[in-house]
Amino acid sequence: MTNLGASLAWGLAIGGTLLAGALAAALLRLPNWVAATLTAFGGGILFSAVALELVPEADREAGAPLTALGLVAGMA
Predict the structure, then answer these.
(1) What is the C-alpha separation between 1 and 51, in angstroms, rounded?
(2) Half-sphere exposure of residue 20: CA atoms within 13 angstroms, side-chain side
(3) What is the distance between the alpha carbons of residues 22 and 74, in angstroms, rounded to a whole number?
(4) Ramachandran sector of residue 27 (left: φ over 0; alpha: ψ -120 to 50; beta: rest)
(5) Longest Cα–Cα distance in the chain
(6) How far apart, in whole angstroms, are the C-alpha atoms of residue 23 and residue 21?
């Protein structure tokens, strides 16, 4: 499979999950505590991705003081 074919396949797979999630959200009514738990889990995943991928690069490029300042400002 070429890079273009692989990219298209992955794009369609990801787009399909977005469509499935939209349909589930339209058809299912979750209790508030379940929705809150899923939202918190998603936020934690996003925070982990930022911490593992972007913070080391920022530290390398800008240094520890600016990286720490950016993290604190972002949390405010």
Answers:
(1) 33
(2) 6
(3) 29
(4) alpha
(5) 48
(6) 5
CA distance 74 to 68: 10
What are the boundaries of each domain within the chain? Answer: 1-29, 31-76
pTM: 0.54
- The DSSP secondary structure of 8-73, one letter per residue, reads HHHHHHHHHHHHHHHHHHHH----HHHHHHHHHHHHHHHHHHIIIIIHHHHHHHH-HHHHHHHHHH
- For 13, the token pair is 């797979």
60 — pLDDT class (breaks 50, 70, 90): very high
Whether pLDDT at 1 is above 80:
no
